[in-house]
Amino acid sequence: MSRRFDHLGDVETFVTVVDKGSMTAAAVALATTPSVLSRAITRLEARLGVQLLRRTTRRLSLTEPGQRYLEQARAAFTLIDDAERSVQGAGDGELSGRVRLSVPTTYGHHRLPAALQRFRQQYPKVRIELGITNRNVDLVAEGYDLAIRLGPLPDSGLVARQLEDAPLCLVAAPDYLARAGTPQTIGALARHACIPFVMPSTGRVAPWVFMEDGREVDWTPPADLQVAEDVLGVVSLAAHGMGICQTYDFIAQDLLRQGRLVEVLAHARGRSRPFSLIFAPHRSLSAASRALIDFLA
Is 207:151 a contact under the CB 8 Å cutoff? Predict the structure, then answer.
């Protein structure tokens, strides 16, 4: 009796070639040669009786049947991947498996390491692939199981488990305050060197947020010196006497304790921003992913 799906290797080759954009790039990813991949796609096209790819010396393009087949093949591989993940590490033995997690730099450097250390002590056979970036990754398209994100989430269909509401503080280096004086009101900040962060999602300066006389105040700092991409940059600049910045308590606490930073306008603190753990509801999470969700949340 012949096997029904002995051609799945050729299907995976086809998907990889399309995803990588060329035979050469796909050959590198699959540790083989372009000629081997070309023969695999030729076999698949012969089996199906249709042309999937138009090949020229410069580029590859999908035919209409190729586009339909690609979509169905990707969906099939996703189902297989989900089936594996749903049982991975779920046996009677010690929990194992792989979890891909994307986190922002704030959490990746200051909040997550201690938690992951405790998780690894409890589940040493779970492999964690950690992506630290301030870019909002596409969980499904980029193959991430979980992500930690800041702020209220848009209606994206993702499931969110809030991790914490992180309090914010305003800080500056003692030598800066010795030179420029210490502001006593929010309005006085306009006369100081402020170090704002440019939000990657909007390209605009993120407002600083305060509580004043029981009401919420959003104030946009002047942007003579501004930081983009990595929000931790504002703290590094402030610690070197470049001006005032707003950051999270969990980032500033060590620098405050060491005397490298001093809190400013403490009477106007009281605002916070939420961090949440998110995942796609339609994906079958592995036992390892579910264990990490429960551990962090």
Answer: no
**CA 44 centroid distance within chain:** 36
Alpha carbons within 13 angstroms on the beta-carbon side of residue 132 total 12
Cβ neighbours of 215 (radius 10 Å)? 7
* Whether 103 contacts 132, CB under 8 Å: yes
Contact, 101 vs 292, CB < 8 A?
A: yes
Q: Could you report the average pLDDT of every consecutive run of 10 residues in the chain (297 residues)?
A: 78 89 86 90 92 82 91 82 62 77 94 94 93 84 87 74 94 97 96 93 90 94 88 96 97 96 96 92 80 91
Residue 31, C-beta contacts closer than 8 angstroms, at least 6 positions apart: none
Could you tell me if 269 and 211 are in contact, meaning their C-beta atoms sit under 8 angstroms apart? Answer: yes
Judge contact between 136 and 276, C-beta under 8 A. no
- Domains in the chain (CATH in brackets) are 8-87 (1.10.10.10), 97-164+275-296 (3.40.190.10), 165-270 (3.40.190.10)
Question: What is the C-alpha to C-alpha distance for residues 238 and 244, in angstroms, rounded to an integer?
Answer: 6
Residue 290: count of CB within 10 angstroms of its CB: 17
DSSP 97: E
